[in-house]
Amino acid sequence: MEELLNIFVKSIFIDNMIFAYFLGMCSYLAVSRTVNTSVGLGFAVIFVLGFTVPINFLLENYILGRGALSWLGPQFAAVDLSFLTFIMFIAIIAAMVQLVEMIIEKLSPTLYSSLGIFLPLIAVNCAILGGSLFMQERNYANISEAISFGLGSGVGWFLAIVGIAAIREKIRYSNVPAPLRGLGITFIITGLMGIAFMSFMGIEL
Amino acid sequence: MPKESLLSPRNKKLLTDPLGKDNPINVQVLGICSVLAITVQLRTSLVMAISVVAVMGFANVIISLLRSTIPPRIRIIVQLTVIASLVILVDQILKAFVYDISRQLSVFVGLIITNCIIMGRLEAFALNNKPWPSFLDGIGNAAGYGWVLLAVGFFREVFGSGTLMGYAVIPQFLYDIGYEDNGLMILPPMALITVGIIIWVQRYKDRRLIDIS
Q1: Cα–Cα distance, B141 to B137 (Å, whole number)
Q2: Alpha carbons B150 and B46: distance in angstroms, whole number
Q3: Residue B167 in 3-state DSSP?
Q4: Under a CB-based contact definition with an 8 Å cutoff, are residues B186 and B40 in contact?
Q5: CB-based contact (8 Å) between B53 and chain A?
Q6: Nearest to B148 by CA among B16, B23, B51, B12
């Protein structure tokens, strides 16, 4: 239990998807103009990461990895399908995003219409594929660790995009040098937020 | 229809526009993710830039050849499959020939798949154009992406560790009189600030790019 909490907190603050690895920057920059839309997108990312990371964990451990197929029989023990990783992961992600879209449309039409175009765009959000690839690289021991890593990364991404959206709403009233307005100042603010987040480094539960 | 020469003015424009006023990173804001994470050294930036040029050029040609046979409803998954196959090729080649760099790039080779520049150009250009212009467009955009990558990598390596491609470039006597490498440049947040400054300089030079909103 402690281990799970540790992974969760670590993936929110220390290995933050945006401030430490810059994943999902495209939608982070494009959608952070107002707090409302960024909250919606943030929730969608938490949702999709929480599903795709554990599914890809199962895929990696029971189908793709070296010797992962040995549950089929001893003659499959030497099979190594890991070169198929990228294509399988992206297929799972695209399918999951489609599924999530249909489920949300059925259950909560208001949420669906407020998310609008952002839902399908999540399929090409690097944070999602990055989550699965980091999960593969870090060799989490079991599926509950993978779930807590996925949810934690999603929450970290959510915090980052809501934070920057709030700052951008305020900064509209400040006198920024003209060539720096919009994109430039957003980059620099994100850098400063990243430096602030680095103070969490080394936290261990 | 008169046959266009291979490097007609229109085609040249396809190649050069993305380098400057239509730059995918500074102006269109696409594909930022990988720019920032792998630019600690010039070497990794160079390998990444070459990989993206290769993937993008070929992906554009393949999609352009298939453009009349792809059903529009499933085009996204077709594009992802084409890109993913090319990225797998690049990944295997890197693992075979430059293993240490491939370790350093870690997950970011895989993340070329979701690099939005590639998807964006496939959607916006290759789906409606002939193979040769699509190829030029792909190479041009990837080169525009590449030079920003190299610029950021250059500054971060020179000021962060005092080396270039692994060779020391800051002369020893500077260290003797008290110069020190700026450790902050190696850390992730400085990549963002470097890109921010590049954007600032570019927009200062070319006032039309200034964001009025």
Answers
A1: 6
A2: 6
A3: strand
A4: yes
A5: no
A6: B23
Nearest CA-CA distance, residue B90 and chain A, Å: 11
Q: How many contacts (CB atoms, under 8 Å) link A and B?
A: 140
Nearest CA in chain A to B191: A191
Q: Tokens 């693992």 — which residue?
A: B95
Shortest distance, CA B213 to any CA of chain A (angstroms): 7
pLDDT over 80 (residue B1):
no
Please write the tens of the pLDDT for every residue from B103-149.
877 778 888 887 778 887 888 888 888 888 888 888 888 888 888 88
8 Å CB contact of A90 and B114? yes
Residue holding tokens 């525009």? B144
Q: Kindly state the DSSP code that residue B4 receives in the 8-state scheme.
A: P
**DSSP character at residue B186:** G
Distances (CA, A) of B74 to A128, B70, B77, B145: 21, 8, 6, 28
From B213, which residue of chain A is nearest by alpha-carbon distance?
A: A182
Cβ distance B36 to A22 less than 8 Å, yes or no, reads yes
Chain-chain contact of A129 with B110 (C-beta, under 8 angstroms)? yes
- Inter-CA distances, B38 with A44, A141, A166, B108, B200, Å: 27, 28, 28, 8, 22
Question: What is the ipTM metric for this complex?
Answer: 0.76
Which B residues, 123 through 142, put their C-beta within 8 Å of a C-beta on chain A? none
